[in-house]
Amino acid sequence: MSEMYQSFEQDFCKSLNSIQKKVSSLPNQSKELKELAITEGVKEISDAEKCLRQMEIELSMMPAASRAQIQSQVRRYREDFEQTKRAFRQEEASYADQKSRETLMGARLDNGFGRPNEHRERLLNTHQVIADQNNRLDEGKRIALEAEGVAIETMNQLKGQRDLLTRSISNNREVGNNLSKGNTLISTMTRRAIQNKLLIIGIVILLLGVMCLLVYMKLR
């Protein structure tokens, strides 16, 4: 396990624990503390998601032998984070509804209950716009995470192909060295065969000369 992974894991657990405490304490807090907690919780959700994504990236770069156990742990982290985020979003939506109702009641009192429907519709439209924007942001984030996952998978495939090419180059180099040694051995054997052939020819010529000399001496 790399030090980078451990660092992101510590930051993620810290942010997740803080969000979970906020979710459990939000219903009992005052309006001012609740608004502050929601603002802090939104930032902590973003930080936790970044840390979790970095952990997944670090996991993809680990050796396959040590990846299985940590992968299940990261999967549990992802499930806990999604569950906590949903609970926080529910509390955030509940606070937004409460705030809208309080604003609507204030608008009715200010206008002597003259035009309540208009103010109610305006607040509901504003709330709907905010909800739509949040949905678009979540969808854009999801698409970005999916694209990042595809990029990581492609990077892993390229890494595997690079390792395969490296092994192929190493094997080709080894084959080339063996061929070079074989050529050197064949050249040495050829040279020795020529030397042996010349030696045999020399011996044959020497024997023929001796025989001729003996015949000549016998005839005389």
From TrEMBL:
| Keyword annotations | Coiled coil, Membrane, Protein transport, Transmembrane, Transmembrane helix, Transport
Question: Main subcellular localization, coarse class?
Answer: membrane
Give any single GO term for biological process. Answer: intracellular protein transport
Q: Which residues form a coiled coil?
A: none
Q: Where in the cell is it found?
A: Endomembrane system
Membrane disposition: Single-pass type IV membrane protein
According to the UniProt entry, its GO molecular function terms are: SNAP receptor activity; SNARE binding
Q: Identify one Pfam family in the record.
A: V-SNARE
Q: Which SUPFAM superfamilies match?
A: SNARE fusion complex (SSF58038), t-snare proteins (SSF47661)
Give the Vesicle transport v-SNARE N-terminal domain ranges.
Answer: 1-91
GO cellular component assignments: endoplasmic reticulum membrane; ER to Golgi transport vesicle membrane; Golgi apparatus; late endosome membrane; SNARE complex
Q: Which regions span the lipid bilayer?
A: 198-217
Q: Which PANTHER family match?
A: VESICLE TRANSPORT THROUGH INTERACTION WITH T-SNARES HOMOLOG 1A (PTHR21230:SF26), VESICLE TRANSPORT V-SNARE PROTEIN VTI1-RELATED (PTHR21230)
Spell out the family assignment given in the record's similarity comment.
Belongs to the VTI1 family.
Protein name as it appears in the record:
Vesicle transport v-SNARE N-terminal domain-containing protein
What's the source species for this entry? Answer: Blepharisma stoltei
